[in-house]
Automatic annotation (TrEMBL):
PROSITE patterns: HTH_DEOR_1 (PS00894), HTH_DEOR_2 (PS51000). It comes from the Bacteria. GO terms for molecular function: DNA binding; DNA-binding transcription factor activity. This is Transcriptional regulator, DeoR family. Keywords: DNA-binding, Repressor, Transcription, Transcription regulation.
């Protein structure tokens, strides 16, 4: 088998399975594991995949630090924020994850909406300064600065005492096989815990996070109440997700 053929097959496996295990692929093809590992190293250098111990993952979007991301407020994120804000009803308890897309939810909330917002993100809490009828509960803990959210045992214990009506979950990558993921183990555990303590969980995402995988899985696709995407995402990009019967909403 030619090198180009092996690499094409590796990309196909990544799209289908969300990962490549070097030993398993070598066994399937009747090749040495060293050959597959060399292919993976070359493909990682070409920015075609992400090398991990024992194999490879699809590339996840490269995220700048939080301050840089905060300065970018795209039209797509504003539409996502407006759609999510419109889902919130007076009297509900809503848990907002950190992130710049979820910050748009707070900016789109009516100032006269009586609602309880729970968050482990001080930046999200700060966005609600001028919402006089919104009760804000800020969860504390060890600050994960990249996402500006609290993590750790203190945060986990506080979250366990809350039952939210809706959780808007932030992720860095979404893949048909690997589900929702992020780059930090502790942050993934917190997100998963919040979802378990919430009646419904929704994910807002822009197109670049689709068909990507980060190292730490949060939840499988079928475990959330719905995915909210911009209305201009091509149908073919959404097809693998519609096949899972996960509700998809267009903003």
């Amino acid at each position: 088998m030619l090198t180009s053929q092996r690499k094409a097959l590796i990309l196909d496996r990544l799209r289908r399975d969300g990962q490549v295990i070097a030993k398993a692929l070598a066994d399937d093809l009747g090749l040495s594991e060293d050959t597959i590992r060399r292919d993976l190293r070359e493909m990682a250098a070409e920015k075609l995949l992400k090398r991990v111990h024992g194999g490879a993952l699809p590339l996840s979007p490269e995220l700048p630090d939080f301050t840089a991301r905060q300065a970018v407020s795209s039209d797509a994120k504003r539409r996502l924020g407006a759609y999510a804000a419109n889902m919130i009803r007076p009297g509900q308890t809503v848990f907002l994850d950190g992130g710049t897309t979820n910050a748009e939810i707070t900016r789109q909330l009516p100032k006269d909406l009586a609602v309880t917002i729970v968050t482990h993100s001080p930046t999200i809490a700060g966005e609600l300064e001028h919402h006089p009828l919104a009760e804000v509960i800020l969860i504390g803990g060890k600050l994960y600065k990249h996402s500006m959210v609290a993590t750790g045992a203190v945060a986990m214990a506080a979250i366990a005492s809350i039952r939210a009506d809706i959780f808007f979950l932030g992720v860095t990558a979404i893949h048909p096989a690997r589900g929702f993921s992020t780059g930090d183990f502790e942050e993934a555990a917190i997100k998963r815990h919040i979802a378990q303590c919430s009646a419904e969980t929704y994910v807002l995402t822009t197109a670049e996070k689709l068909d990507a995988a980060s190292p730490c899985q949060i939840l499988p696709l079928g475990s959330i109440s719905g995915l909210i995407v911009p209305s201009d995402v091509p149908d073919e990009s959404l097809a693998p997700y519609r096949d899972t019967d996960m509700p998809i909403f267009l903003a």
